[in-house]
User: What shape does this take?
Amino acid sequence: MSSEIVEFEELLERILSNTGAIPFSQLYALSDLSRERLPAFAGAWEILNAPDRRRLIHALVELAEASFQVNYDAIFRHTLSDPDPEVRAAAIDGLWENEEIPLIGRFITALRSDPEPQVRAAAATALGRFVLAGELERIDPAIQNRIMTELLTIIHLDGESLEVRRRALESAGYSCTPETIEALDIAYYEGDEALRLSAIVAMGRSCDRRWQDLVLAELESSSPAMRYEAALAAGELMLRPAVPILARLMQDHDPQVRDATIWALGQIGGPQSKRLLVEAYERADEDTRAVVEEALAEHALSEGKIEFPLYAIEDKDEDEEDLDWDQEIDQGIDLEDSSPGEEDLEDW
Assistant: This one.
């Protein structure tokens, strides 16, 4: 018996025994499950109670987002039909990089008929990447049209929850059809504040400069949430006229708005954006510097440059050690704690 099979079987036993924290590093044994191993996992999964299933699925989603070395898609596909809505929604979220066409049907089914709004909202969000794939000609136009029909139906569906309609609108924003433009106009001018926020998100995703004036106006909104979304939209639309306003938002009292502003400047490019980013780097704290570095890297790419001289500004301390991923993830997941919080991965 191979060591991988032994590790897999031992992990299943430990999950079922519920004897304490499981190191995240051991969850690697659930990665890339073969058809032969999936039934064993499914059998163990059915025995777990709902709180334990929630904690495990959330742990797998976060680990998949944090490490390119793992792939839990087989588990996420299996748990799309879990009886617990929180698990179903998390399973959809976990498939965020998967563009397999058969998933479209499952997401549309969830969007249409799942009884829980959080699952329908997750499905609406997931369909957005397939709309984008259609715009990039990676899927058949007929499939994209089917998705857009479903999303637009939800956007205008009386009685549907606001959260689901918002996510459908944001996903539809990737396609610049007349129907989408009409939906954005209605949402922005006739919707409540939350729907207007999603309209700005969709405007940014549309890559359509027709929305420039609205985005520029919302950069000076009194709402931090609206300024945040407008800054992201300005970056996605690469609006050079937004740079003077973004320069002022670099001093915004809301840290999320400041981070969105930095990101937007990196996307927009140009000498003025670069100057603002370099100045921000010189006065930033450690966390903000990381955000600025990423923005400057994006700026360099937009200018056709592949060297990033920023990283030579400060040399790495001789005694500074590289991140030890295994050390970070060995903090573990405790299935006995059924109330996961908002902490980072290593704090689970």
